[in-house]
Every structure is written in structure tokens, then in C-alpha cells.
């Protein structure tokens, strides 16, 4: 069922793509559906900035031009999914490990369009482990800091990010002051980025249900 819902929200997102634009593209299975839909209207965009090697390969497969973010000052829109998104439009992301590039592209995009199926839209974050990308040498030191925060760190085995780093999944974190926690974790030496997207959160949200897709903005 979730694949059907991912596909339906991906189809809806196509309506939000400005003509002749260069768009930012996230990562993951929902975004893979979106890239496929995008291929049908690829003539109406100039290109895309991908947030992962997987998304880049898929865009290339569909002959959608890849644009280097360093050649741009901003993007009109960034389309990505999330592992969870709460009623304040804050997200936990990075289940696929592409959080750092996702955060960079989101930070220079005028609009962040988040596309999810109904299972990911929650009133409050609901125990989904928060990923953090770390420089390999800092694996243990960052893990100790996670424990001090009340979290349980789990090293993501056999996984190297596109940037050559490791991922620690932080279980059991108490996310009361999400913005403070995002800044605090970002400041731990060795952390490249944390999968809390609460400072730069989503502007627009599409949520798919069996019979409809809801549009939500704050
Ligand atoms: C990847 C992400 C994805 O958006 C998130 O994991 C959701 O993935 P999927 O669409 O496969 O459920 O943050 O880093």
C-alpha cells in the first residue's frame, strides 16, 4: 500500500514545478517515484540538483540534466520526502543517509516541498531514530555525547555516506526543544549534520491518503 501512496503523492508534486526552473531533488523511494514522474515533463525544466548519488543516477537515466549547486545562488523549489514530519512542519530525515546534501540544498531553496504518505505525518515525533552523519574518527566521541543527551547510539553498519562518512542512528532521544537540540547536536565536534530539519523546515507539505492528497502549509 505504501508504494501506491508514495506514487500518488509524487504525481501530485509535479503540479508544483515551476516552468523552466532548476529544481532541487531529495533522495529515497518516494523521490524515486517523483523522478520517474518528472521524466514525463523533463522538457519543461532546465535541470535538477540531486542530493545523492542514487538520485543523480536516476536523473541521468531519464536524461534530466544535472546542475552543479556551485553554479547557482538559489533554487525556486526543493522536493523531498521525510522519515517523519510533525504538525509544525519539522522533519526527521536521513533514513537513506543523504541528510547532509539534503540540508545544503534545502538551505538555498526558496520553497521546501515535502511529500509523504500518511504514515509519516505525525502530531509529535514518534520515536523514529534521528540519524547523524559523522567524520569516521569521531564515531566513539560523538556516540558518548549522544548518551549524555539520553540517546542510545547505533552505528549504521556497512554504510558509508556519499561524503565518505559514517551514520549514527540516535534512538530514544527526547525531542522537546527541537531547534535547540538540532543546534546542540550540530555543535558536537565530528558531527557533519544531524537529521533534524527543524530550523529549515518544510514550507509546503503534500500527504497522500488512500483516496486523496492533502496540501498543508503553515
Ligand atoms: C533520505 C531521506 C528520505 O527522504 C527519507 O528517508 C524517506 O525515504 P523514503 O521515501 O524511502 O521513505 O531523508 O536521506
TrEMBL record:
Catalytic residues in the record: 102
Record organism: Buchnera aphidicola (Cinara pseudotaxifoliae)
Listed InterPro entries: NagB/RpiA_transferase-like, Ribose5P_isomerase_typA_subgr, Ribose5P_isomerase_type_A
This protein's name: Ribose-5-phosphate isomerase A
UniProt entry tagged with the keyword Isomerase: yes
Organism classification: Bacteria, Pseudomonadati, Pseudomonadota, Gammaproteobacteria, Enterobacterales
GO molecular function: ribose-5-phosphate isomerase activity
GO CC entries: cytosol
Gene field: rpiA
Binding site for substrate: 27-30, 80-83, 93-96, 120
Catalysis: reaction(s): aldehydo-D-ribose 5-phosphate = D-ribulose 5-phosphate
Recorded metabolic or biological pathway in which this protein acts: Carbohydrate degradation; pentose phosphate pathway; D-ribose 5-phosphate from D-ribulose 5-phosphate (non-oxidative stage): step 1/1
Keywords of this entry: Isomerase
Family the entry assigns: Belongs to the ribose 5-phosphate isomerase family.
TM annotation in the entry: none
Keyword flag Isomerase: yes
Entry-linked Gene3D superfamilies: 3.30.70.260, 3.40.50.1360
Known role: Catalyzes the reversible conversion of ribose-5-phosphate to ribulose 5-phosphate.
Amino acid at each position: 500500500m505504501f508504494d501506491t501512496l508514495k506514487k500518488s503523492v509524487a504525481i501530485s508534486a509535479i503540479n508544483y514545478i515551476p516552468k523552466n526552473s532548476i529544481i532541487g531533488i531529495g533522495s529515497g523511494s518516494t523521490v524515486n517515484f517523483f523522478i520517474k514522474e518528472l521524466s514525463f515533463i523533463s522538457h519543461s525544466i532546465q535541470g535538477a540538483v540531486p542530493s545523492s548519488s542514487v538520485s543523480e543516477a536516476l536523473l541521468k537515466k531519464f536524461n534530466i540534466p544535472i546542475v552543479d549547486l556551485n553554479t547557482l545562488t538559489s533554487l525556486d523549489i526543493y522536493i523531498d520526502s521525510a522519515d517523519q514530519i510533525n504538525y509544525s512542519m519539522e522533519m526527521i530525515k536521513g533514513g537513506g543517509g543523504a541528510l547532509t546534501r539534503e540540508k545544503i540544498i534545502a538551505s538555498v531553496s526558496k520553497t521546501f516541498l515535502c511529500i509523504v504518505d500518511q504514515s509519516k505525518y505525525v502530531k509529535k515525533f514518534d520515536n523514529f531514530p534521528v540519524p547523524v552523519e559523522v567524520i569516521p574518527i569521531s564515531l566513539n566521541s560523538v556516540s558518548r555525547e549522544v548518551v549524555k543527551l539520553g540517546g542510545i547510539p547505533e552505528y549504521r553498519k556497512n554504510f558509508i555516506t556519499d561524503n565518505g562518512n559514517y551514520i549514527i542512528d540516535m534512538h530514544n532521544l527526547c525531542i522537546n526543544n527541537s531547534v535547540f537540540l538540532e543546534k546542540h547536536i550540530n555543535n558536537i565536534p565530528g558531527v557533519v549534520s544531524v537529521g533534524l530539519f527543524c530550523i529549515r523546515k518544510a514550507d509546503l507539505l503534500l500527504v497522500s491518503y488512500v483516496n486523496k492528497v492533502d496540501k498543508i502549509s503553515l
